[in-house]
Q: What sequence folds into this?
């Protein structure tokens, strides 16, 4: 499409040029004179000679891709009659190589493909000579061949990558940098070199001017924040043909960096800082360091710290470490634990540089600093620097001369022990009571030998050694700052950075000389003793209020009371007993424990009662098997044996030989008693092979009737079980061939009192039938 358009453009241009040259070519007579202009009026003759042919320039399309020579135009003299006597000669840039002319007719051609960007025009000279004589017929004339431009070059930027910067928080439209592209095409001809700039990457932060290539910010101060994003890469595109469709493009990258401005105020990451320092620290020494946070960099992050309030304004100071931007807290004056055990300071931080108009800050600029003064063990101090005592030389040995008194300046108020520096009393005339400081005589005194004795008394703080708890003079002694309890805290809030608790003693309490709190730094604290001795007889219970403060803003605090009981120890350091209140408290159980124990006891009792009830309800074995109980029951006799031939069912030999049976067979359904009931004597029956079984049974009936151990109710005693075909007849009426009416039950009366009831029942029925 592009080639077709260019060809069409060239065709139209060539026609115009040819027409111009054809119409512009003027043939005049040589030597003709004309009077022109003001010179004619003034009487001066101005003479102008017109040449027979003239031309100015030719145009040629660049980058011709045809196979034939490219026709440029035609040179023709008015003297050319077409008879071939004239010869056209071409000289100048590229004549004969790039450009050729037909000697006969003056047609001008280009032999090569030309690039306007390499050479935009060529200067040639042409003349006409006589072919035969070589005489010039026309003076040599110069003309130009210009190359027509086509859009064959894309825009190119001066740099492949640009680097620029702009301050953060700049207003919309702030200039960042300018990019420039050039196009090698002809800027004087068409739109091939007319460029338009656009941004293809970098929206919506930046924009570019389409005519000048100036890059500007496109967002406001609140959205161009270096702390959120510092580096941007913008891609700029330059397009020729005035940005129209079909134009060629070139691109470049611009790396833009937001420079820092002081738009963030410094602040502390926590609301409270806590330090501990011994009271012996020297003035000017550092106590601790605190550091604020500033999102800016460089000079904009330089900070300055100052103490704005607190009870330690004249005791502490804070300076800024310029290398680390930390606040260094230092001591201005000596500290005394016995006077002040802690100080609270309010320290403020601010930037050295002025803040930007659009500055912001979310962290607090004031932090609370708590400085705890630690007690240092100081030597005892005497009430007076010197003592003057008088004693008579005839004073008895052991007489008290006087006394000295020293006290421990520490809050622990440790016991003091006294001794005499023997270098001042070499003869040992005196001694001192180690406990109360009384000085007494140990050797006789003689005024004539020495009327003055200068002795030095040493007061030593009594230091506790292991075991930490021991018995001394009715006092319980502990090591200094011995940990007796650890406490912790909980908070219903759930801060983002987690909980941070600070522990301290209530400033209004009177117990501060007895106990102290040491913050462990892990949301726990240790309760420590501050005295070396406690007398349980004097006071056995101490209430220690502990103040717990959180680290969030606004700070919240609460007070919990810890109860400390003093118990006595033996001389080896083992605890012996506490007071009655302590013993009761220690030995007692909580309500929950008592309820649990009571429930366990009740459950055990219930298990025992249930087990005993189950034992009592256990069913006893019946005296008679249910099938043998004839009371209101039907006895089944349909299980018959095989008779005498059935040796597997029953051994009838025992019935045939009653003598072989035991003399005394105890009943299995009662407990036998040999003392009350002697064994029964059975009547011997003669041994016969075919003895009548009925006789045997009758004998057994008599034995049972006379047996006083038989149950007191009617029962069926089974003596034998015979199968079919036995010599003994069936005892069951069900198996009898005779009917119930044919039976004679009078024999039941002969069986004894056991069968009397049965005989009355069946005998009565017989009487009813007879009547």
A:
């Amino acid at each position: 499409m592009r080639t077709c358009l260019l060809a069409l453009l060239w065709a139209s241009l060539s026609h115009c040029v040819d027409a111009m040259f054809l119409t512009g070519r003027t043939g005049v007579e040589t030597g003709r004179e004309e009077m022109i202009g003001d010179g004619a009026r003034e009487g001066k003759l101005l003479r102008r000679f017109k040449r027979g042919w003239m031309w100015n320039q030719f145009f040629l399309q660049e980058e011709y891709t045809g196979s034939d020579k490219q026709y440029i135009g035609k040179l023709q003299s008015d003297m050319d009659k077409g008879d071939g006597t004239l010869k056209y000669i071409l000289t100048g840039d590229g004549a004969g190589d790039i450009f050729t002319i037909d000697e006969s007719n003056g047609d001008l051609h280009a032999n090569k493909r030309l690039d306007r960007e390499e050479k935009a025009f060529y200067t040639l000279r042409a003349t006409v000579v006589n072919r035969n004589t070589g005489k010039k017929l026309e003076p040599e004339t110069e003309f130009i061949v210009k190359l027509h431009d086509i859009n064959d070059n894309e825009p190119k930027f001066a740099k492949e990558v640009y680097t620029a910067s702009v301050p953060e928080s700049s207003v919309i439209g702030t200039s960042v940098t300018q990019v420039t592209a050039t196009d090698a095409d002809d800027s004087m001809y068409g739109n091939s070199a007319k460029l338009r700039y656009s941004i293809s990457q970098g929206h919506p932060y930046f924009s570019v001017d389409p005519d000048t290539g100036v890059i500007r910010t496109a967002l406001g101060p609140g959205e161009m924040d270096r702390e959120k994003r510092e580096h941007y890469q913008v891609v700029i595109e330059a397009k020729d043909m005035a940005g129209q469709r079909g134009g060629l493009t070139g691109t470049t990258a611009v790396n833009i960096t937001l420079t820092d401005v002081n738009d963030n105020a410094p602040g502390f990451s926590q609301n409270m800082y806590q330090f501990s320092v011994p009271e012996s620290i020297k003035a000017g020494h550092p106590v601790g360091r605190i550091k604020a946070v500033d999102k800016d960099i460089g000079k904009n992050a330089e900070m300055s710290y100052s103490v704005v309030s607190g009870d330690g304004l004249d005791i502490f100071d804070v300076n800024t470490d310029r290398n680390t931007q930390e606040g260094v807290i230092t001591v201005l004056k000596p500290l005394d634990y016995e006077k002040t055990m802690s100080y609270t300071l309010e320290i403020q931080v601010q930037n050295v540089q002025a803040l930007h108009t659009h500055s912001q800050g979310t962290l607090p600029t004031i932090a609370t600093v708590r400085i705890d003064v630690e007690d240092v063990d100081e030597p005892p101090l005497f009430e007076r620097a010197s003592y003057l005592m008088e004693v008579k030389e005839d004073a008895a040995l052991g007489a008290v001369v006087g006394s000295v008194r020293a006290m421990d300046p520490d809050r622990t108020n440790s016991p003091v022990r006294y001794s005499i520096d023997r270098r001042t009393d070499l003869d040992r005339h005196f001694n001192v009571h180690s406990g109360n400081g009384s000085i007494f005589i140990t050797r006789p005194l003689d005024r004539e030998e020495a009327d003055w004795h200068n002795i030095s008394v040493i007061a030593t703080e009594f230091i506790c050694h292991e075991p930490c708890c021991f018995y001394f003079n009715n006092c319980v002694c502990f090591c200094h700052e011995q940990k007796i309890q650890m406490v912790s805290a909980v908070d219903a809030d759930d801060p983002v950075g987690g909980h941070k608790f600070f522990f301290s003693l209530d400033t209004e309490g009177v117990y501060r000389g007895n106990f102290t709190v040491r913050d462990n730094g892990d949301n726990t604290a240790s309760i420590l003793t501050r005295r070396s001795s406690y007398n349980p007889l004097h006071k056995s219970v101490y209430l220690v209020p502990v103040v717990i403060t959180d680290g969030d803003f606004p700070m919240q605090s609460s007070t919990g009371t810890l109860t400390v009981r003093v118990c006595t120890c033996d001389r080896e350091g083992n605890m012996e007993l506490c007071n009655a209140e302590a013993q009761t408290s220690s030995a007692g159980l909580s309500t929950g424990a008592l309820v649990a124990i009571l429930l366990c006891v009740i459950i055990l009792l219930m298990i025992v009662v249930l087990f005993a009830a189950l034992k009592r309800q256990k069913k006893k074995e019946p005296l008679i098997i249910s099938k043998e109980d004839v009371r209101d029951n039907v006895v089944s006799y349909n299980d018959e044996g095989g008779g005498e031939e059935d040796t597997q069912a029953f051994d009838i030999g025992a019935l045939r030989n009653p003598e072989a049976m035991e003399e005394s067979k105890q009943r299995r359904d009662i407990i036998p008693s040999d003392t009350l009931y002697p064994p029964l004597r059975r009547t011997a029956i003669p041994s016969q092979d075919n003895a009548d079984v009925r006789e045997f049974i009758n004998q057994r009936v008599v034995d049972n009737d006379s047996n006083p151990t038989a149950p007191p109710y009617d029962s069926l005693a089974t003596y034998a079980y015979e199968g079919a075909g036995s010599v003994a007849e069936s005892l069951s009426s069900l198996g009898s061939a005779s009917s119930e009416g044919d039976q004679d039950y009078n024999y039941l009366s002969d069986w004894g009192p056991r069968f009397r009831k049965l005989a009355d029942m069946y005998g009565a029925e017989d009487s009813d039938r007879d009547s």
Notes: The mean pLDDT is 75. The first helix runs from residue 2 to 24. The radius of gyration is 69 Å.
